[in-house]
């Protein structure tokens, strides 16, 4: 597997969406920024908030697109074109309905599973879906008709604490992933439940 050189956190822009479940991917990037003390800055050429950081001995590009979720791909493609990054060198963090709050999973490749941010990212990368994913569990409302309002809603206090604990565990396992030891990173992360 290729070494990760960039981490992209999917979400929606603006204060209205800042604390909504759909922004769990962006929360991960914000957590890395807090750890490294390198602020995210508006970078118009990448259509997002960008920082270059040293995390666990690795130089990483961090990006939170400031486009809406269903237009995330433009920001990802702009970053890749500028730094000549391959899809395999990306880790895209996103909210995941199919796993519970307080859990997270690494994955490489695969479809979009109905996630509009992943769908647009795959499209913008020329239908290449070989990038790594970090699926941050937000749980499911139980009925497909409720999904839109659910992902655009704010989690309750206990639920947000669980999601944050899952993100903290992601940060703990990221160094192994960045070192290419995906099995070790997955074994630890996939057995964690807050």
Characterise the protein shown here:
TRNA binds at residues 17, 68, 70, 116. Catalyzes the release of premature peptidyl moieties from peptidyl-tRNA molecules trapped in stalled 50S ribosomal subunits, and thus maintains levels of free tRNAs and 50S ribosomes. The record marks 12 as: Discriminates between blocked and unblocked aminoacyl-tRNA. GO terms for molecular function: peptidyl-tRNA hydrolase activity. It is found in: Cytoplasm. There is one protein chain. Strand 2 (41-43) and strand 3 form a beta hairpin. A 7-stranded mixed beta sheet has the order 2-3-4-1-5-7-6, with helices on both faces. It has helices at 24-36, 72-83, 116-124, 147-151, 157-178, 182-190, and strands spanning 6-9, 41-43, 48-55, 58-65, 90-96, 104-108, 132-137. It has 6 helices and 7 strands. The chain starts with 5 loop residues before the first strand and ends with a helix. The chain is of the alpha/beta class and 194 residues long. 42% of the residues are buried. Helix 1 packs across helix 5. The mean pLDDT is 95.
């Amino acid at each position: 597997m290729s070494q990760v050189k960039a981490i992209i956190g999917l979400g929606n822009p603006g204060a209205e969406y800042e604390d909504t479940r759909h922004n769990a991917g962006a929360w991960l990037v914000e957590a890395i920024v807090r750890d490294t003390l390198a602020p995210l800055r508006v970078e118009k050429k990448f259509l997002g908030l960008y920082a270059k950081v040293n995390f666990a001995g690795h130089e990483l590009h961090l990006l939170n697109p400031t486009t809406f979720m269903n237009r995330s791909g433009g920001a990802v493609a702009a970053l890749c074109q500028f730094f000549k990054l391959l899809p395999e060198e990306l880790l895209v963090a996103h909210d995941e309905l199919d796993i519970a709050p307080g859990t997270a999973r690494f994955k490489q490749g695969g479809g979009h599973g109905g996630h509009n941010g992943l769908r647009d990212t795959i499209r913008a990368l020329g239908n290449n879906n070989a990038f790594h994913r970090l699926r941050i569990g937000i749980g499911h409302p139980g009925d497909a008709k409720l999904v839109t309002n659910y992902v655009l809603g704010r989690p309750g206090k206990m639920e947000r604490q669980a999601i944050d604990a899952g993100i903290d565990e992601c940060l703990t396992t990221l160094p192994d992933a960045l070192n290419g030891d995906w099995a070790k990173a997955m074994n630890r992360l996939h057995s964690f439940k807050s």
